[in-house]
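Sample pair:
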Amino acid sequence: MMGSVNHFTLNKLLFPEISYGKLIIRGYNNRDMSILIDGHNLIPHLPGINLSDIDDEEQLINWLQSYCRLRRRKVTVFFDQAPAGFSGKRDYGAVKAYFVRQGGTADDAIAAYLKGLGKVARNYKVVSSDRMVMAAARSVHAQAIPADVFAQEMVHVVEEVPEVDPHSPLLSAEELEDWEELFKERKKPDSL
């Protein structure tokens, strides 16, 4: 029995904060962040996004938000070369983004993040095409996924047309009319 250790204290013990320069990563858990992404490695593999675009990070975050919504996942993405005053963590719903200040690299931040996870890192997937990041992932038994492979999955998921659920089919025109009539009757005031 753990006695007086509360959930917050346990979380801090199991997941100590990681410091990488001025970037501090704290209090993460496996359910929240199971995929780590090297953002600038993934961008060139997605249609319509180019690293030279002024808003390439924002475009990738939009792609990731769609992916997370459809797959019911949460991801953490790392971008390097953040301009002065823009480094740090930003939350975009299911997408957490770490902007690493100039002089640091996303590769080093991902490696530090993985190291800080300890044994839990084996439950993570790491998306990158960078050999150093892939080696860091494998060294902690995390699954390393090449950026082009993950990009193909993202495109497939985001652009896939959802099928109609057979347990909840669309109404026929006749059924729709019946419902409309039923609601029209309910709106008429009762005659006294």
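Confidence is low (pLDDT under 50) at residues 1-33.
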